[in-house]
Specification:
7 strands; single chain; alpha+beta; three-stranded antiparallel beta sheet; four-stranded antiparallel beta sheet
Length: about 130
């Protein structure tokens, strides 16, 4: 099974290495040491933590009723308006999500750089690369 260093885990979770280290120290995720003394997290344990971290924050978000299960809360980093269409970019942890939508939708939502937003994805075609 693949294991990850604290730094690698932090990058995958979209948090700082200090946060990942504090979570490990608090027992939120189990670690073990390799022969060089580095703290490692097993892939399965990291996957479980990623699911936990990715759950909606509860008190911060209103409950929503949607069939789109893939939610990426983040901050709007760019809004490009055309005559009819628009492009909105959201930085959601380590992920950059780009959406093409109508200008009308952007204006109705009041989307602007610096505001919080959640990108919701529902797709029948998702490609996964092994890295």
């Amino acid at each position: 099974m693949q294991s990850y260093t604290i730094g690698q885990a932090a990058r995958l979770l979209g948090v700082s290495p200090d946060t990942a280290r504090r979570w490990a120290d608090a027992g939120r995720v189990a670690t073990h040491r390799d022969e060089a003394g580095r703290r490692l997290i097993d892939g399965r344990d990291l996957a479980a933590l990623a699911v936990e971290v990715g759950r909606p924050g509860g008190e911060e978000e209103d409950p929503s009723f949607t069939s789109a299960r893939n939610a990426f809360p983040g901050i709007v980093t760019a809004v490009r308006l055309g005559d009819v269409a628009a492009q909105v970019e959201i930085q959601a942890g380590p992920h950059r999500v780009v959406s093409l939508l109508t200008r009308e939708a952007v204006e109705e939502l009041g989307l602007a750089v610096g505001m919080r937003a959640t990108a919701r994805v529902k797709s029948t075609s998702v490609h996964i690369d092994r890295t």
